[in-house]
Batch of 2 targets.
Target 1
Amino acid sequence: MSSPAIYDPIAAELDLVIERLRELARVDFPWLGQMLEHVLRQRGKQIRPALCLLAARFHPCDMRQVVTMAAAAELLHTATLVHDDTVDKSALRRGDPTVHSLWGDSTAILLGDYLFANSADLCTSTGNLRCVHLFAYTVMTLCKGELNELFSAFDVKQTREHYLQRIERKTASLFAMATESGALLSNAPEAEVEALRRFGHHLGLAFQIVDDILDYMGTEEDLGKPVGNDLLQGTVTLPAILLLEREPSDTTVRRACEGPDREAAVREAVERIRSSGMIEEAYAVARGFADAALAELKHLPSSPAQASLRGLVDYVLSRSR
Ligand code: FPP
Ligand code: MG
């Protein structure tokens, strides 16, 4: 299934989400309006709002509420990226200059807060207390994940379990929020809510592993950021952890983290990881989580929405950006 076909059952609602987000840029404060335009016009893959909309498709419900929640999920994601780029000091996001590089760190933090508050406002306007609780819990979890990433930077002793816990928090939690909230708003039975939450969780893990693989394998043009950026920033992800696990005497990753001349050492580590077979191993781990996500779909009736969720799993594994 191609990405537009995956979104077919929810195309009209996804347009409403985009419209809802565009409306947010219309504010009575030109400087803020300009920055909102900048971040909201960078259209990403829209996986999170799509997950929320698709998860709500299994029972008849008021789709306006679901559109609002889907917009909240996308906006929360945007807020985290504005903050993450500031923390990571990244120059580019989706090929465009980042907010902090254009307007400075203080402005970027405040803009991220503004987006975050706006997403919370959207979520509360669904009037669903479980969604509000889920949203708050997810933000706490995302922060734990990002803090974990900061505290484990340059740590070559971190284990695969440590890495998985980190990506569970910083990525899978938001995927799970998207699917669980969609299910809740459609008044799905509890067993389906659980299955959709677990689907989002496992898909999120697969997504982040592939994201971390692409950081080694993609091109700067596709990624919108430099290749090897994670390691350059000290973020040790699955391909590097697997190499450290398999070949403890190999010093490439250690030199990339500890220096001297880290830039050259990172370039060397990228080459080493590309030729080491660890990319294939990391893909196998991602495929395991993708299969776990697919297994959850057995708890849901066959339908166009179910086929789209299946298509999203394939897309997440095969994407190149
Ligand atoms: C991108 O990951 C970042 C995240 C998935 C989560 C970031 C979370 C925060 C900054 C907490 C935000 C809190 C509030 C209140 C909004 P990545 O660095 O692996 O992806 P990238 O390579 O695309 O930057
Ligand atoms: Mg980042």
Target 2
Amino acid sequence: MDKKMIDIIVPVFNEADNISLFRTAIEKTFAPLKYNYTIYFIDDGSIDESLKIIKDFSMSYNNIKYITFSRNFGKDAAIQAGLKYSKGDACIMIDADLQHPVELIPEMIHYWENGYDTIYAFRDKANEHVSFAHQMSASFFYKTLILLSDIEIENGATDYRLTDRKVIDVLNNFSENDPYFRGLTKWIGFKQKAIPYTPNKRLHGTTKYSKRALLKLALRGITSFSVKPLNIATYLGFTFSILSLLYIPYILYSLWFGHPISGWASVIATVVFFGGLQLMILGIIGLYLGKLFMNSKHRPHFIISEENAS
Ligand code: UDP
Ligand code: MG
């Protein structure tokens, strides 16, 4: 019987120093396993040597494929492209920078063999490689995400996962403009298993996510999964209307006893507070409107300039 095929989907953005190490690590991992594998490197508009290295590898090894984007479209687009080309019985989505330990792959495959459809890794406990501020903001982000989205995403959920063919087929049928895979795979359901891990230190290069990009990712995560933030306006509106009623007795009391109602400071504070609140809520509505707008254009999610994966 033919061995089953596992596709490795690797988004690459300026990872020249990591690609070769990554390939060797995968080769070593699969050597004792009874599976064939194909690596799909999706070059997300790298401006370093990454593409050249990947192409050279694809000449020497016929289980290495490449897909190149016309520019940088972001990691999720890269994963999406990889999924479109994947033909295997399962696929593993993993970062190129070796922060996702390949040692986890046999364990993921073990669970897959035992009937799990999505096996995903999440960062375990406080790990020493990221700054305290980063950890706090990540933990805050996941808490907010869970609160606002009705799906339980573990604090530390990553894009490191193995999915069965049936999950890939479902994902490929999504026409969402801005897929947020961490949430989507969870949302899809089937039999899921979470396994904890401690991320390795990045060997070469730096993280591609600035603080601003992380904030953008957070907002995307929330807005692609729920409309709860839109309800906030309603709740706040009710609350403040009711609170403002409490002010009436004070006004009547002052009128009755002839007290002047004091308050330049309080008026300004109130105006500024509500001004801010209204802008914030307008902003939230704007985020959703922006999403609708972008989706309504039906633009392709990525543009491929070259590939040898079909
Ligand atoms: N990546 C990508 N496109 C981007 C940013 C990142 O394909 O616009 C890839 C990157 O090459 C790596 C993975 O996504 O393989 C994770 O990126 P990174 O290590 O910078 O993120 P972090 O581990 O810091 O969250
Ligand atoms: Mg990384």
